[in-house]
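sry for the spam today, last one i promise. struct tokens for design, 419 residues
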């Protein structure tokens, strides 16, 4: 979900470099509109031009269409929903969390992502028909998504290898829209799966085979009360001893710290006292978090278009802006200690060093294959393949490194648990 805000004036040093500016088509509510599929894709062998796809080539027809399952639910006339999250456990186990499946209009090619429908239906969305992103009543659009294949796993070919239909109903409460984030701790030998539902204000911890073992927050209630109430929580990161931090969130303005057993320890963060000049430790959409090797916490302050850095006890250390057209959605810190951002403002994948210097970026806005339309989550497998989950396009995309690609331009490895 994009938020429309007044651009603040921030007295900070800028990042050493600028994003390429992208012209986006917006709806009256400020959301990026679907891009027409009538444009012609450039040949990868064409000379000149920009690095629209960077050091990668798109893996086509990935993931594969879902087959009708033993539950009797048919897929004819349905397609991928808004995809909030993707996590690469291995090249053969890619976890996908989507906000239900979407109906296709009559005559549409099976499994067409919403960004490629002609005529357009606008953005893919997980919101209910007639319900907005914060549960307010809006004009009905005339079609409804269904909560099916909310959590599933595919292999390297994009074929379904596992799903959790028993948990689809967790996301169906009034005003539910589906998962925001799916992750696994790099320090957990039992490989628990953590799933965030921002709309219902809860965080779920599952065993590897899908048993629910912990719930943080109170379903359907928003607030700020340790681990009992959250306000649209968004992301999680861990220290080696299992201590974890939660960004809270779309409505909340804090980072919350917990011990390995889920006991609340502390939190920090406030709304800006002066929205035109937000200071340190003040947030507008605390959307993503990652931890460096020296235990610094890098937090996306999305609404203020910046990264804030803290120590593990909430002491402010540093911050930098990410550009006037930027809207940093998600980020990771690679094992070689660079910060990679999926930017939903410029629709690009962007590289920084940990001091805030801009180093490289690629990508462009659009709904065509290989372009980006709402890159809400990014992840990399052990072979260097990059995956993006797109909330507006309604899809997951897989990019493989080109032969001979400059390694400094490829998103580095994520930290994972290894035996």
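last one done:
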């Amino acid at each position: 979900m994009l938020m429309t805000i007044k651009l603040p004036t921030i007295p900070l040093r800028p990042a050493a470099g600028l994003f390429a500016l992208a012209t986006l088509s917006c709806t009256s509510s400020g959301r990026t509109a679907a891009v027409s599929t009538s444009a012609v894709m450039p040949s990868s062998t064409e000379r000149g031009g920009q690095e629209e796809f960077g050091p990668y080539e798109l893996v086509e027809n990935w993931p594969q269409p879902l087959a009708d399952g033993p539950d009797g639910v048919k897929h004819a006339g349905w397609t991928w929903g808004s995809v909030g999250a993707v996590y690469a456990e291995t090249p053969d186990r890619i976890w996908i969390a989507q906000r239900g499946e979407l109906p296709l209009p009559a005559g549409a090619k099976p499994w067409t992502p919403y960004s490629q429908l002609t005529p357009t239906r606008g953005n893919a969305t997980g919101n209910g028909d007639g319900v907005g992103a914060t549960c307010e009543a809006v004009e009905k659009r005339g079609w409804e998504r269904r909560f099916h294949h909310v959590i599933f796993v595919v292999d390297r070919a994009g074929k379904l290898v596992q799903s959790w239909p028993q948990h689809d109903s967790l996301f169906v409460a009034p005003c539910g829209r589906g998962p925001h984030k799916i992750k696994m701790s790099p320090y957990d030998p039992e490989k628990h799966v953590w799933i965030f539902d921002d709309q219902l204000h809860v965080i779920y911890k599952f065993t590897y085979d899908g048993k629910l073992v912990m719930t943080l927050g109170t379903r359907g209630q928003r607030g700020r009360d340790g681990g009992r109430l959250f306000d649209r929580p968004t992301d999680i990161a861990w220290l080696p001893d299992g201590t974890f931090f939660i960004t809270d969130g779309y409505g909340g303005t804090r980072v919350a710290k917990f011990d390995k057993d889920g006991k609340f320890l502390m939190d920090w963060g406030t709304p800006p006292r002066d929205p035109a000049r937000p200071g340190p430790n003040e947030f507008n959409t605390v959307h993503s978090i990652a931890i460096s090797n020296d235990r610094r916490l890098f937090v996306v302050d999305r609404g203020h278009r910046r990264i804030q850095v803290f120590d593990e006890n909430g002491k402010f250390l540093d911050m930098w802006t990410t550009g006037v057209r930027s809207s940093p959605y998600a980020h990771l810190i690679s094992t070689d200690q660079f910060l990679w951002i999926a930017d939903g403002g410029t629709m690009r994948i962007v590289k920084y060093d940990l001091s805030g210097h801009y180093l490289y970026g690629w990508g462009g806005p659009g709904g065509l294959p290989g372009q980006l339309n709402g890159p809400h989550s990014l992840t990399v497998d052990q072979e260097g393949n990059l995956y993006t989950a797109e909330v507006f396009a309604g899809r997951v995309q897989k990019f493989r490194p080109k032969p001979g690609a400059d390694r400094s331009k490829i998103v580095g490895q994520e930290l994972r648990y290894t035996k």
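The chain has one domain: 56-409. ok im logging off now
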